[in-house]
Amino acid sequence: MEKLFDVYVEIIDSVFVKGKLNDVNMISFTGKVKGKYFNGEVMGSGVDTQFIPKNAPALLSARYMLTGTDIDGNECRCFIENNGSFEKGFFPKIITDNPVLSDYEGAELKAEVVPKDNEVIISIYG
Fold first, then answer.
1. What is the pTM of this model?
2. H helical segments located in 1-126
3. Rounded Cα–Cα distance for residues 65 and 26 (Å)
4. Cross-strand bridge partners of residue 15
5. CA-wise closest residue to 104 among 5, 29, 20, 30
6. What is the Cα–Cα distance from 123 to 18, expressed in whole angstroms?
7. CA distance linking residue 114 with residue 7, whole number of Å
8. Residues 59-68: contacts with CB within 8 Å, 24+ apart?
């Protein structure tokens, strides 16, 4: 698989609830995007919802909108929904108004999520 782009996530805030059977952490974020096929930024803020069962691995689901330019310099937007876990991997979906990136809509994509201090780097592959 080829790397499409990296999202450099900057955490804004988080809210947490500790339940009897599960905990939930919601992290709002912004960030920049750099890559061969797309460069831009997170529009507004995205949210990563972490569903944390007491007796199983955490499940993560992030949703965010990107704005920027494609490999040819054309302006475009992309919506990303990235679901998965550190144990089983991350599997993003992309929806875009861009002809170059639209081939990845419905395709099997993978993501690598690497936490670093106050930043998280998400690499998306297609």
1. 0.92
2. none
3. 17
4. 26
5. 5
6. 30
7. 11
8. 59/83, 59/84, 59/85, 60/84, 60/85, 60/90, 60/113, 62/122, 64/7, 64/29, 66/7, 66/33, 66/38, 66/40, 66/41, 66/42, 67/40, 67/41, 67/43, 68/33, 68/38, 68/39, 68/40, 68/41
Q: Express each pLDDT in 3-19 by its tens digit.
A: 999 999 999 999 999 99
Which amino acid, residue 69? T
Using alpha carbons, select from 116, 121, 117, 126 the residue that is nearest to residue 96.
126
Residue pair 69/41 in contact (Cβ under 8 Å)? The answer is: no
Cβ count within 10 A of residue 22 = 15
- 26 neighbors 50 (Cβ within 8 angstroms): yes
Q: How far apart are CA 92 and CA 7, in angstroms?
A: 12
